[in-house]
Amino acid sequence: MDLSKFTYSKKDSRLTPKSLVHQSITQNKENCQVYETSGVSSAYQKPEGILSTSLIFVLSGGEKKEKDFLRELIKQREFNSLRVVFMSEKGQGLQPYQMQEKWEQIQLTGEIKIESQLFHLDTMDKVFLLSDVDEFYDQLEKIFKGNQTDVQGRWVVSNPCFEIWLYYCYLANPEKDLGCLKTEPVTTRSKKMKVLGNTLVSGGLNPCLAFENMLNGIEHSIAYYAEDDNRIPVLYATQMHEMAQYLVDTMNRNANEYFEYVKRKEEWREYMKR
Predict the structure, then answer these.
(1) C-alpha closest to that of 205 among 161, 251, 267
(2) What does pTM read for this prediction?
């Protein structure tokens, strides 16, 4: 199939069966940007009564852990209900102001163009902008003082970094486990957080396994959530529980896909222990 002629639109009401999904991974070497998406056969029409596949765009400040956490939804090997297009910048990620500029352009045109593919947005789609607090506080403060009323694009900020969300997927005692971060300089908190994660959990804060533990992460993240007067999460707080809840709810709208996925993984591990 010629992907250059493919246009994705929620109004087309198409669903992607696994047999018709194929990966299209492109790299824009000039801008060092990494994009991953899935293609769908334009000849496939969704049968009546089946939910449309939700398409989520994630603009991420980090390119590694965030992408690994969402890997199952990027590759779409197990899920029909949800598909993620991931955007970041290779090597250094994207700063908040760069993500905000991209989102404003999307709002202006109603479209996202990725190489030869064109994606149209409607109210069923979401855009999440993932950012750490650490060295970007001033940028976030300026952005958050602007208009945050749109329901389609959502900032998801973690303090000090995305690893605090991974921590909550496994554990829930930040004051005890991560107390030393309070005296750590702001500029090195994220680095320290990543080191601590490797000592607290056997095998480290594995983002792929954390995907299976989202319900724990949601519960723990909510319990420790707080934000300052600028609506920016305080230390040990992350807004990832909001994004995770959206992911779980969306997947479970189609025959409890997320719960069934977790069940299969658990059963497989039990089988391997025999």
Answers:
(1) 161
(2) 0.80
Task: Give the span between the Cα atoms of 117 and 3, in whole angstroms.
Answer: 7
Task: Record the tokens describing residue 238, joined without a space.
Answer: 């992350």
Whether residue 89 contacts residue 61, with contact meaning beta carbons closer than 8 Å, is answered with no
Task: List strands edge to edge, sheet with 33-39.
Answer: 22-28, 33-39, 82-89, 54-60, 126-132, 153-158
To 10 degrees, what angle do helices 240-252 and 214-223 make? 140
Q: Which of 226, 98, 240, 257 is nearest to 161 (CA)?
A: 240
112, 106 contact by CB (below 8 A): yes
- Please report, as a single letter, which amino acid is at residue 165: W
Query: pLDDT per residue over 110-124, tens digit each?
Result: 887 766 777 777 644
Rounded Cα distance between 262 and 78, Å, is: 11
Distance, C-alpha 66 to centroid of its chain = 6
Closest CA relative to residue 13, chosen from 36, 45, 40, 43: 45
Residues 212, 217: Cα–Cα separation, whole Å: 10
pLDDT digits (tens, 9 = 90+) for 50-62: 567 888 989 999 9
Is 29 exposed, middle or buried (CB count within 10 Å of its CB: 0-12, 13-18, 19+)?
A: exposed
Q: Are 53 and 79 in contact (CB under 8 A)?
A: no
Reference 170, options 136, 196, 141, 135; nearest CA is 196
DSSP type of residue 77: S
- In sequence order, the β-bridge partners of residue 155 are 129
**Which amino acid is located at 68 in the chain?**
D
